[in-house]
Amino acid sequence: MECPTPEELVTEFRKRLIEWGRANYEEWPWRKDRTPYKVLIAELLLKRTTRQAVGREYNKFIEKFPDIESIYRASFEEVRDAFRPLGLYNQRAKQLKEVARAVVEQYGGEIPDDIDRLKSLPGVADYIAGAVMSFGFGKPAIIPDANVIRVLARVTGIERWSSRGKLKLYAVLEKLLPEDGHEDFNYALLDLGGTVCRYDRPRCFKCPLRDLCVMGHNDEEMKQCLRRLYKKLGKRDSVHTKVKEQNKR
Length: 249
Ligand code: SF4
Hints:
- There is one protein chain.
- By secondary structure, the chain is mostly helical.
- The protein folds into two domains: about 130 residues, Helix-hairpin-Helix base-excision DNA repair enzymes (C-terminal) (Endonuclease Iii, domain 2, Orthogonal Bundle); about 110 residues, Endonuclease III, domain 1, CATH 1.10.340.30.
- The chain is about 65% helix and about 0% strand.
- It is elongated.
- About 5% of the residues have low confidence.
- The site of iron/sulfur cluster has 14 residues, from helix 9.
């Protein structure tokens, strides 16, 4: 493969990731019948908890608390008891009660469809806000959770530990994200980070992005080319503003 143009790289990256994602799609209860509320709850439950553990409790939780009002009206003890099987129950219940209070009292009981307002909710970081936008509202938004940022850092060769590095990775992600098919793209990236580009041992031999990846490629010249291209994509410009504007609509 010759050194591609940035446009070719973006197109190829999306195509390969989405195809892989569709073929390896993971069924989880929170991926069915999605609403902004259900996505928000799933993401809050998934904080510091495995998907397997949340998978066992998610439907019971949604049955007991079908909407944000039901959490708002419930006592702290009721919410805490529903969290017991997942651990960290005092902390989670406190946070969820605070989120419910903010949504009901500040936003009239509607989960806001705006990234900045979502991020104003207690404990809602960039990646939870992005998941609610993309999976809940169907609007293009990046989901920069720890796994996704790790994958992107390996793919681009951009370090992920400084805030400068992180901003560059966000910018790359925003440019890679397609407007159509952003849900498939986001699911695929999350699943790739969980199964192939794993924290402890990336399985590059199974990866659809291998020859688009600085870490995975085995040709030094191509590595340099990819590094340059991703560096270019990491510059913040109007594309970032465009995605932000889309999120607000
Ligand atoms: S090629 Fe390897 S390092 Fe790169 S994204 Fe795939 S698994 Fe991760």
